[in-house]
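input
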Amino acid sequence: MFAEELNFRRKLVKIGRRAVSLGFVMNSQGNFSLRLPGTDYVLIKPSAIPYEDIEVEDIVKVDLYGKVVDGLHKPSSEVDTHCLAYRTYPEVAGCAHVESPYLNALYAMDKEVPNVLGNFVYLFEGKGLAFGPSLRSSSEKFGKAMFDAMGNNYGVIWKNHGLFCVGPNIEVAFDRCVAAEQAAKVYWLVLALKAGEPDVIPPQIQYEMVEAVRRGAGGG
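output
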């Protein structure tokens, strides 16, 4: 195993454990992957192994169609969706799927998370989250429906399931998951106060934030 690939495997192990520590996943829920730079290969978490038990050698290497190239285990059951993301969006090199509770609670009630926090605006460029149709996951049909819904957004809600985010690397994809759950928690708390809908960031300020991101100066 080359040193560079080993470092990328370590990144996936670290991201999985961070997701557990933040309460975004439990046991072996969710999944994370990255595309190895300059290749048609993807590293993805194994199926049905708790994150606390995953080591670098457990990470599975597949091609862009989900065929196992190197691995001791089966890849995540949603490997088809991850691979389709890399084939659909050439600029994407990291995918993160979490099952964060505040997002799941709000979207189970058809509540769309508004732009109430700056990091949510920065990381999603003011576009918020797309809303995918209710379908059983773990198939290419599901993946196509999700990406049709996502369009040029960076994250899509899988209703009654979780959130799927993409990024130029796995760190950005995961940061988007964090920002989305933070915004969802704030919105949930506002609704719990029963004082009406929250004030969102004014459109002009959102525009300035997005322009800052495009100049490479945005984000917290």
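quick obs: The beta strands are 31-35, 41-44, 60-63, 68-70, 94-98, 130-131, 155-158, 162-167.
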